[in-house]
Write a structure and sequence with these properties.
This protein is of the alpha+beta class. Helices cover 49% and strands 17% of the residues. The strands form four sheets. Strands 10, 11, 14, 15, 16, 17, 18, 19 and 20 form a nine-stranded mixed sheet that branches. It has an eight-stranded mixed sheet with strand order 8-26-25-24-9-21-23-22, with helices on both faces.
Length: 905
């Protein structure tokens, strides 16, 4: 069908529908026939392949080799216990593989659930009424209403449009917006590039459109090429790369050490099998098996927590960047304020009236009817149904104006809209042309600076006179006065058009100024607290708004963004004259507001801040904001008022448009980074008491205090859940009382290594060795004496060594919850997973020590109460020493801070 060549009415008829849309029954029928308007997911790798993948990771391969060697050794020299080692290693590979698989499964499920949080909705006309439907429900024959910034949801034929331009980049690669018109295409026009065709996957760059859907889902042009684009992989975050790199490094390091000591051991005359166990033990002790899956899960669970706090993360890496944000550039309307508007005041003929004043209303409506006509008809609202009642869908400001107008004047419900020059944030005004009994009129509303300059006449007391300088300055004063109270001020103007009018820019000239409307938009109640948090956390908040400087300043004051007498207010006009270095200097000012700025200026501000090595988060909602959103470190789009295009360009979406949610997300972002350090510290710490026994075994020729199987029982068993628990800790209340982390700061740094290996780890190692020797000595063992592998005394001693490590780690998990805060200042019950982890540790410990099975598998024997009395105090020592270290750390940093001059705490 050559739908682009038909006139609009024929096109509509050809799809057996009408201008007022399909009936609901017919739409349902077509939905069954054609299926949902979505693209089938490209089939992913089968489950079993993905399951198998878990067992072919680098670490698994290392362990497979170890197991293989053990079995070979058993065959070579039976009876050395090698088969048991081999089997254990295999069990470990299986358990850890299944654990990783489960973690990845959780990751996928969480991400899938998150992607459903923000369904794409479309305004559809059915049975003459507009309603918002998920785009999946569109069927051929539907009439959709599209506006600037919307994605085109299916292949459509334009049937009515004002100033429509499309961005076809996604399909044709053509980046310049192209004009689209409703008329039929010429004979030789191609269907794809047809001037009246809107293709799925493209977006509306400007204007307003009514369009007829003719192809949905896989039958769209986009559907035909989609399989090419869908297979792009998920971006890996720098943090994940760092972790991957780190664990590879540790793994290789472990193998090298293992091999080196094997060779040294052989040279020193250690029997082959002892040296072999030794090498495998070292490798297993050092390989960080659970690191990567735990990290991914920690990141994804953080995005889930953020979603619960109304922030949808679109790119996983942003979770980390968020934590180091130093500046937030935020919109005002809707983000800092509620975006619930009411007209408070009107200024007509130079006099102010309160909008609530009933007695004046009739009089005003007579003398200033055009003013109310503009308020009533100059908008992009759509009449629709919500919860069963007729409402206007769209900009709350326009709804407020309409509401005021319908109370003042009675008019037919609609004068047909003939044309429109749409609102855009750079023009800051909107004009519509309507057919009235008196002929066509142009109605215009917008920012006073943008509208009054187009006016040559003014309506006053029912008469139209020349707009003299005196009246202009009066208008400015009235505007200032309203803006000063935080109101958003709009100027309304109009002009009767000659019958022979034409669509061009000159339409908007020679207007008659009708009056001003002052709208109130109260700040969101959560915002002052969020701003306070930012200040405390060393994050700057810069308001960047399209609104008037005085309005901006009044709101900023109300929410605590401006506390001094005189903030620096830079208007877009001033900014245009600023050089880059002037802008740079201005940005050093503590309190700065940008007002009446355009989208490209927002971009310039972001660039300038980046130049200053700031980590910039910026909010935006319109099409024009997309470049700034892409360019900032974190682009934040609005979930409610934002356009599809802005959301696409953003790294995260605010589901409630609320500034406070940004601050919550930053808090979570900071927490994630800290959490990863916590579990890193925790699992690195247990590597030391696992390693030291082997060194002692070789250097001092003592019985081996800890077998490879026992090491695995800690790495893969007892510590697994507690480590995960640390990875998903809720943000520490103090996390927003510190300055942002520097971007250069690496995850794995010296303080972390020193604390994990040479402090916590070393103390644990000393304790474990002490426990081992205590049991040996009290059993009458003398230095130099050899013990058989199945000697009851030896079994008890290794059990004591293993038990000590487990007990120390049970305590250590609580110590690792903060780098510098005392455990006594933290609520131990905030994290239930840690307690489940502790329960697991204790259960496994009892199983290993006191059941025949546990004894047989792990090569242990029950240990006495006396041994426990010796072991347990070490846990206390660990707590005391770590508390002491933390105390010193806190006081030393405080000292340093106090000594630095000019540092504001
Ligand atoms: P903000 O930063 O407050 O969201 P915008 O960029 O949305 O500002 O709007 C800038 C200015 O444009 C507003 O102060 C107002 O004067 C004008 N304006 C906003 N929306 C409309 C609209 N729908 N029609 C006409 N003018 C508008
Ligand atoms: Mg806005």
């Amino acid at each position: 069908m050559q739908i682009h060549k038909l006139p609009a009415t024929d096109a509509i008829a050809s799809l057996r529908t009408t201008l007022s849309g399909l009936s609901n029954v017919e739409a349902q029928r077509r939905l069954r026939e054609y299926g949902a308007n979505s693209l089938a997911q490209v089939s992913r790798k089968p489950l079993w392949l993905r399951f198998l993948k878990e067992f072919t990771q680098l670490f698994s391969i290392i362990l497979w080799i170890a197991a293989g060697l053990a079995f070979m050794a058993e065959w070579w020299a039976p009876g050395q216990g090698m088969a048991r080692l081999g089997i254990t290693v295999v069990v470990v590979i299986l358990v850890s593989g299944i654990f990783s698989f489960w973690q990845e499964h959780r990751v996928e499920q969480t991400l899938a659930a998150l992607s459903k949080l923000l369904p794409q909705q479309v305004d559809v006309l059915r049975e003459g009424k507009t309603s918002r439907l998920p785009r999946e429900q569109l069927v051929p024959g539907d009439i959709v209403l599209l506006a600037q910034g919307d994605h085109v949801p299916a292949d459509c034929r334009l049937i009515e449009g004002f100033g429509v331009k499309v961005n076809n980049a996604a399909i044709t690669g053509e980046s310049l917006p192209q004009t689209r018109e409703a008329g039929p295409a010429g004979e030789d026009d191609q269907a794809l590039g047809g001037k009246n065709i809107l293709l799925a996957g493209t977006s509306i760059a400007a204007g307003e459109a009514k369009a007829l859907v003719f192809a949905t889902g896989p039958r769209t042009e986009f559907g035909k090429i989609a399989h090419l684009t869908q297979s792009s992989g998920q971006a890996t975050s720098p943090l994940r790369q760092e972790i991957a790199h780190l664990s590879r490094l540790i793994g290789i390091f472990a193998i090298l050490i293992g091999l080196t000591f094997f060779v040294i051991g052989r040279i020193a005359g250690i029997p082959l099998w002892d040296a072999f166990i030794f090498a495998i033990g070292i490798i297993i002790a050092m390989v960080p098996e659970g690191l990567q899956p735990t990290l991914t899960l920690a990141l994804v669970l953080a995005t889930q927590r953020m979603a619960r706090r109304n922030v949808l993360i679109r790119h996983l890496p942003s979770v980390e960047t968020l934590g180091s944000t130093t500046v937030i550039c935020t919109d005002k309307t809707g983000t800092l304020t509620k975006n619930i508007m009411t007209v408070k005041q009107v200024v007509l003929g130079g006099t102010s009236y309160s909008a609530g004043d009933q007695s004046k209303r009739e009089l005003l409506a007579k003398d200033y009817r055009p003013f109310f006509m503009v308020a009533r008809f100059c908008h992009d609202l759509r009449e629709g149904e919500q919860h069963g009642s007729q409402v206007f869908l769209g900009d709350p400001m326009e709804s407020a104006l309409v509401e005021m107008a319908v109370q003042a004047i009675s008019s037919p419900s609609d004068y047909r809209k003939l044309d429109e020059i749409p609102f855009d944030a750079d023009r800051m005004r909107q004009s519509t042309v309507h057919e009235t009994p008196e002929g066509p009129v142009l109605l215009c509303k917008g920012a006073p600076e943008m509208v009054t300059t187009l006016c040559t006449r003014i309506l006053t007391g029912g008469k139209i006179i020349v707009f003299q300088e005196e009246a202009r300055s009066e208008t400015r004063t009235a505007q200032e006065a309203m803006a000063f109270q935080g109101m958003r001020v709009l100027a309304l103007a109009y002009r009767p058009l000659p019958v022979s009018w034409q669509h061009d820019a000159a339409m908007e000239e020679d207007l008659i100024f009708a009056g001003l409307a002052g709208l109130e938009d109260p700040p969101r109640p959560e915002v002052p607290e969020a701003i306070r948090k930012c200040h405390q956390a060393g994050i700057r908040v810069i308001m960047v708004t399209g609104d008037h400087p005085s309005t901006a300043q009044a709101i900023a004051r109300e929410i605590g963004l401006v506390r001094s007498g005189k903030p620096l207010v830079v208007s877009g006009e001033k900014l245009r004259d600023f050089s880059d270095s002037q802008l740079g200097l201005a940005l050093d000012e503590t309190e700065i507001i940008f007002a009446r700025v355009t989208a490209d200026q927002k971009m310039r501000i972001v660039e300038a801040l980046k130049q200053k090595q700031q980590v910039v988060a910026v909010t935006g909602d319109g099409v024009n904001d997309a470049p700034a959103l892409k360019n900032a470190h974190i682009g934040i789009a609005m979930g409610i008022t934002g356009t599809d295009v802005a959301r696409e360009a953003a790294d995260m979406v605010l589901l409630d448009d609320n500034f406070a949610s940004i601050v919550n997300a930053i808090e979570e972002g900071r927490a994630v980074f800290e959490n990863i350090r916590k579990f890193l510290t925790y699992i690195l710490a247990h590597n030391v008491p696992e390693l030291i026994p082997y060194l002692a075994f070789m250097l001092f020729r003592i019985p081996l205090p800890l077998s490879p199987i026992q090491i695995l029982s800690v790495d893969m068993g007892t510590d697994s859940l507690t480590a995960l628990g640390l990875g998903i800790e809720k943000p520490d209340p103090k996390v927003m009382e510190q300055p942002p982390r520097s971007q250069q700061e690496r995850l794995f740094n010296w303080p972390l290594v020193l604390r994990a290996y040479f402090f916590l780890g070393l103390i644990e190692a000393v304790a474990a060795m002490a426990g081992f020797f205590f049991v040996l000595q009290s059993g009458g063992w003398l230095y130099g004496q050899k013990l058989a592998m199945d000697d009851p005394l030896y079994l008890q001693a290794t059990a004591a060594c293993l038990s000590t490590i487990i007990v120390m780690q049970i305590v250590n998990v609580f110590l690792c919850r903060s780098r510098s805060r005392s455990i006594f200042s933290m609520n131990p019950f905030r994290n239930s997973l840690i307690w489940w982890g502790v329960l697991l540790e204790i259960t496994l410990l009892l199983f290993i020590d006191y059941t025949p099975w546990g004894n047989a598998i792990f090569g242990t024997a029950p240990i006495s109460g006396k041994a426990w009395l010796f072991i347990l105090p070490f846990a206390l020592v660990l707590v005391v020493l770590e508390e002491l270290r933390k105390w010193l750390a806190r006081n030393l940093t405080n000292l340093c801070i106090r000594q630095k001059p000019g540092y504001k705490v």
